[in-house]
Amino acid sequence: MSLQHFINQAMSAWMSQEGPNADIVLSSRIRLARNIEKYRFPTLSSNEEAKEILKLFEEKFTEESFDELGKFEFIKVDEMQPIEKRVLVEKHLISPHLAEDSPFAGCLLSANEEVSIMLNEEDHIRIQCLFPGLQLKESLKVANELDDWIEKEVDYAFDEKRGYLTSCPTNVGTGLRASVMMHLPALVLTRQMNKIIPAVNQLGLVVRGIYGEGSEALGNIFQISNQITLGKSEDDIVDDLLSVVQQLIGQERSAREALYKTSQIQLEDRVYRSYGVLANSRIIESKEASRCLSDVRLGIDLGILKDISRNILNELIILTQPGFLQQYSGGALRPNERDIRRATLIRERLKMEQDQNKRTEDDDL
């Protein structure tokens, strides 16, 4: 399999497209937690109940089309290979919990991979919409439309006072989790993130790593999401998150401007050194690759590096994770083999970018 073919097949819309504020915001996600009335929640349900829910969704929604999203594919998680599960987790299409802990888990996946509907995770249904850039309101609109679409076929567990009922009390109410994935290298380099994180937490939001709860902020990528779902409307939750995200965007841009103004040579040196590591390494660990990719992306956004796609961070931060590396290689790899393959894939991707730019220049002559 060629690298170009692999990338074309592997890239979800949020990775390959640019949205609003794409220099800082990689993606926006809306997730709605729902449960079906008359079924026990997944934490207490029987295997038979879980099977019935999978069967219901397979019969009602497989191959069904929803507006421009196209047809949905029904996936039974226990029929997937471990590497395939890991790839879906790395693409943020299913949660680690769904991949590992539920023997009767399933997923409905839209053709463009903007929407995934997880089944028998912590709740019976988790509707997820993932859009490129800062598009929280657009994501919420689609999620609500999907919610109405599903509710035509099932009755949700709902209480007039409490709202939607969920396995975890923190999701009761709207059942809404809104999150934004942001690249904040300048705030990290200027040591402002250590002050920002507790300040954001005090506003009822939480700052996590690239794969959510318990994960690291690889490549200076952070997820900002709401914690409160009860007592607020969906629009209020999204508006509150948007307000904080827009402030962070302004702070990150100011920090980038200040860094470039006061430390231009040092910053350029850091960017070019990281690019050199990525372009020439024969073996590279995940953390080092993520750090260097973050530096290169910052260099692209500041105009230090020319003729390199901004989406290269989106692509390579995902493509160089263990699941993708093993899928690209066609089988399981030991850690050292993954580090070698990671370095090879990055070199090939950067060379592909150079070759594309050279062809464009030749065509312009």
TrEMBL record:
The keyword Nucleotide-binding applies. PANTHER family: ARGININE KINASE 1-RELATED (PTHR11547:SF38), ARGININE OR CREATINE KINASE (PTHR11547). ATP binds at residues 27-31, 92, 126, 177-181, 208-213. It comes from the Bacteria. Residues 24-255 form the Phosphagen kinase C-terminal domain. InterPro entries: Arg_Kinase, ATP-guanido_PTrfase, ATP-guanido_PTrfase_AS, ATP-guanido_PTrfase_cat, Gln_synth/guanido_kin_cat_dom. A motif (RDXXRA motif of the pArg binding pocket involved in allosteric regulation) lies at residues 338-343. Keywords: Allosteric enzyme, ATP-binding, Kinase, Nucleotide-binding, Transferase. CDD domains: bacterial_phosphagen_kinase (cd07930). GO terms for cellular component: extracellular space. The keyword Coiled coil does not apply. GO terms for molecular function: ATP binding; creatine kinase activity; protein arginine kinase activity. Its EC number is 2.7.14.1. This is Protein-arginine kinase. It catalyses: L-arginyl-[protein] + ATP = N(omega)-phospho-L-arginyl-[protein] + ADP + H(+). One of its GO terms (biological process) is phosphocreatine biosynthetic process.
